[in-house]
Design goal:
- The protein is α+β, with helices and mostly antiparallel strands.
- It has two domains: 313 residues, FAD/NAD(P)-binding domain (3-Layer(bba) Sandwich); 86 residues, Alpha-Beta Plaits (2-Layer Sandwich), CATH 3.30.70.
- It contains 14 helices and 22 strands.
- The chain has a seven-stranded mixed β-sheet. It has a six-stranded mixed β-sheet with strand order 8-2-1-12-21-20. A three-stranded antiparallel β-sheet has the order 3-7-4.
- β16 and β17 form a beta hairpin.
- α1 runs parallel beside α9.
- The longest helix has 30 residues.
Length: 409
């Protein structure tokens, strides 16, 4: 039996299904929603992820419906100074994609789903929620609740890509280790043109000891596009207070006085976690994406890590199911992707947040000076970009082998 079951129809689950189907495997994906979610959360797609998406022929279409963003800028909000400007063109000799693509995750999902419709060996079953998982030495079985009641489905392996509250992870008793930030993140989206009015590029990080901000542009439905701002919030204030028109306008005007009310096309609050699953493999069950790891959004590494999980796992499942390779490859998946999540993504995103919110004047000055110096030195800038582009972490994962796995046992 070579069917791979997949719980979760976000971009991670869909991408895993696409890669498995293109390799010749049968895949059956379940998602509890009746249609693809128009989730505006993640948009930044880093060079290391574009390398993977490019092998599936997705990058050209993502560029068509998104924005190419080679520049990232760091600002000191109290002074209005652009502290550092990094150009991904410095990576031209190291990757075929020396830029970031700003493509909202629902667009990426839509592009993948269009390709899945052409694969007869892949089923995408919507309005289907995985509610129970069992396994033995030969197969894994899931109970799926749908319009026609609860049905059982059996496969060779199960990929749990069902989000941070993953039923699959919970059913397998895998701990989700880490912590939750006290403050929630507030996302406000507006058509106000920060490029014309403030000189911002498409990706901006504003350090402020009182209230940091991320400000970046997405294509939305086409020109002129939308600008998304992200702020920390007071944990003592209610959702109603934080999302009210008065509070939203006051927050934006404090940062970016506009001379008039902002048009707000989207507003939301997100609880933010830094967590990693205790293992990404439990027998015939493998975790990927938010089911395996979650982090704050500063730096745009969450969805990127999930898509990288999907590619790594699909390659290894194909080698096991079609290539006769040992299941030790699945333990190597766990080692490689948990290493990336713990040594790079968690550390980097936590450091990103601390750098933006730093209150101590001396430490803050040192952080900004380090950014200035790195941006002014091409080799240091290149090294910085390798990390933010996730090339360093991908290369680190690829360097881990079955021999390294034996050393961890």
């Amino acid at each position: 039996m070579s069917t791979v079951l997949i719980a979760g129809g976000g971009p991670v689950g869909l991408f895993a299904a696409l890669l498995l189907g293109r390799a010749g495997l049968s895949a059956r994906l379940f998602d509890e929603n009746a249609a693809l979610q128009q989730d505006p959360r993640a948009a930044t797609t880093h060079p290391a992820t574009l390398e993977i998406l490019g092998t599936a022929g997705l990058v050209d279409d993502m560029t068509r419906v998104g924005l190419v963003a080679p520049i990232v800028q760091f600002w000191d909000r109290p002074t209005g100074e652009c502290v550092a400007r990094f150009d991904h063109a410095l990576l031209a000799g190291e990757t075929s994609y020396p830029y970031v693509v700003q493509c909202e995750q629902f667009k990426t999902s839509r592009l993948i789903l269009d390709r899945l419709r052409a694969l007869p060996n892949v089923e995408v079953l919507l309005s289907r929620e995985v509610v129970d998982v069992t396994q033995n030495d030969r197969a894994v079985s899931v109970s799926v609740r749908g319009p026609d009641g609860v049905r059982r489905h059996e496969g060779a392996y199960l990929i749990g890509a069902d989000g941070g509250r993953s039923i699959v992870r919970k059913q397998c008793g895998i701990p989700f280790e880490g912590f939750t930030w006290e403050e929630r993140f507030l996302v406000l989206t507006t058509p106000f043109d920060f490029e014309a009015s403030r000189g911002y590029g498409y990706r901006n990080y504003l350090a402020d000891p009182e209230e940091w901000c991320n400000c970046f542009k997405v294509a939305a439905d086409g020109p002129p596009g939308l600008w998304r701002t992200v702020f920390p919030t007071d944990p003592q204030r209610s959702e109603e207070e934080l999302l009210g028109d008065g509070a939203v306008q006051a927050r934006l005007q404090k940062f970016f006085p506009s001379g008039g009310d902002y048009e707000i096309v989207h507003r939301n609050l997100y609880t933010t976690h830094q967590r990693i699953a205790g293992t990404f493999r439990a027998g015939r069950v493998l975790l990927a994406g938010d089911a395996a790891h979650v982090n704050n959004s500063i730096g745009g590494m969450g969805l990127n890590g999930g898509l990288q999980d999907a590619a790594n796992l699909a390659e290894k499942l194909t080698a096991v199911l079609l290539g006769g390779e040992t299941e030790a490859l699945l333990d190597l998946y766990d080692l490689q992707r948990r290493t990336v999540a713990s040594e790079f993504v968690q550390q980097q995103t936590i450091a990103n947040k601390k750098r933006l919110e730093e209150r101590d004047p001396e430490t803050r000055r040192r952080h900004l000076d380090e950014l200035r110096a790195a941006a002014a030195d091409p080799e240091r800038a290149r090294q910085f970009l390798r990390g933010t582009a996730m090339l360093t972490s991908q290369r680190r994962a690829a360097a881990l082998t079955l021999e390294d796995l034996s050393h961890t046992c």
